[in-house]
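agent: user wants the full assembly modeled, not chains individually. Plan: 1) parse entity lines 2) check alphabet per entity 3) run joint structure prediction 4) return tokens. Steps 1-2 passed, two entities, 482 residues total. Proceeding.
--- entities ---
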Amino acid sequence: MNHACAFARTLDTEKIVVVVPRLPVALTDGKEIWPLESETWQKTAVELPPEITAGVFRNLFTGEKVSTEIFDQKHRIFMAKVLRSFPLALLVR
Amino acid sequence: MIACLPVHRTYVDAVSGPSQRDQRAIETAVAEARKQNPRTAHEIFDFIRDTLLFRNVEEFRPEDRSGLREFVMKFQQLTGPVMAKGVGDTAFYVYNRLVSLNEVGGRPEQFGADVEDFHHSNVERLQNWPHSMLATSTHDTKRSEDVRARIQVLSEIPKEWQAALTRWSRLNAYHRIRLNGTAAPDRNDEYLLYQTLLGACPDAPISTQDLQQFQGRVLAYMEKATREAKVHTNWVNPDEDYEHAVRHFVQAALDDHANNLFFRDFQQLQRRVAFYGRLNSLTQTLLKLTSPGIPDFYQGTELWDYSLVDPDNRRPVDYELRRSLLQQLEERLSQAEYDPVPVLQELLECPADGRLKLFLMLTVLNFRRRNVSLFNDGNYVPLTLSGER
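--- prediction returned ---
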């Protein structure tokens, strides 16, 4: 839980979530690869607080749709899905 | 007392008196100065403190009070330049532990920050200075944002870094020159040089011409850096012998010759540091574009910019190249409107050309323009992570 940083910006109904990787050498075991694989992220996820309700986000960079999932009673977004095609994400509600 | 001041300057004025921040700064500095000078009478320190805080105005004769005000104003104007020259322009060239930390306004003694700290400072900025400038490179930074992003990779690989340093200093030992019984350049300058090379080296493949140009930039940089450090040479009385030894060392280390074993070994680690440096740069760029504050982009940083301190960061920018890459990218993206992933894959496959950074700026700045108030006035919500990574 040390290898990413995530935050949201919100204004009324507008909401975005920003996700970036951190300390990339250890994250990719020094393999000089982009941290995209689900092997890299495993089950790492961003927890969503109540003010950012569940639903579908659009990845601004890739155009992909990302749905929140309930895991351990919390709404989460899984890194392996968000960062499948590009190593950083800006998700738009 | 100026040397002990924890800030560049205070803003005390005679009418409104000192702010809490300024009062704390002056009290801290005077207390520290007193501690370091135990043989100086306490009353002197008390007098200076009370004077700078306008606590003893009543003790001055009325006709002397305008002179007192002038002294306090003058004193406050003086501390800024002394700090700039003493810290940024001297100490930051001597304390080379991890030079990406040695940035104006930075604190090299603070080695890294965790995610909590980052969120905390974003929350604070949104509360107190929501529209302050977020600058990562300027005409006055010691190293461009992408040079720092590369050097920061070293903080993740201390063992590899240490092993490389041992090999490199052995391979280059022969190029040091004996001067007054010691070898020049000294270990600290050599250490600065290796970090500088890793940060500023152009991406492979490096042509003979590239290497020559790079050598010229590094020679100029090392002359400036050693003079600013004022340990072996300085601007007022340059030590020609020491400077010659540094030049000789740099020329040998960057010699375009098949038996330059150092440079071949260096390129291995450089490739690695450059790869992860780009990821750090992208992260830095996206955080700057979306955190509370107004992002600022220095000329040339639309693509990877590996420039050092001025005059290196004031070289002409190839705007033609940037314009044409931007135009091509916009066209490709508009054609691929429904699925930009193939375009992104191409960018990820040739990361050295810098289009990844351009893409990020283009996409997020356009998005910002469509959602101005979300970024200018929107809340900031730190999010928690769970799981293995």
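agent: reporting back. Chain B has two domains: 2-88, 97-327. Chain B has a mean pLDDT of 96.
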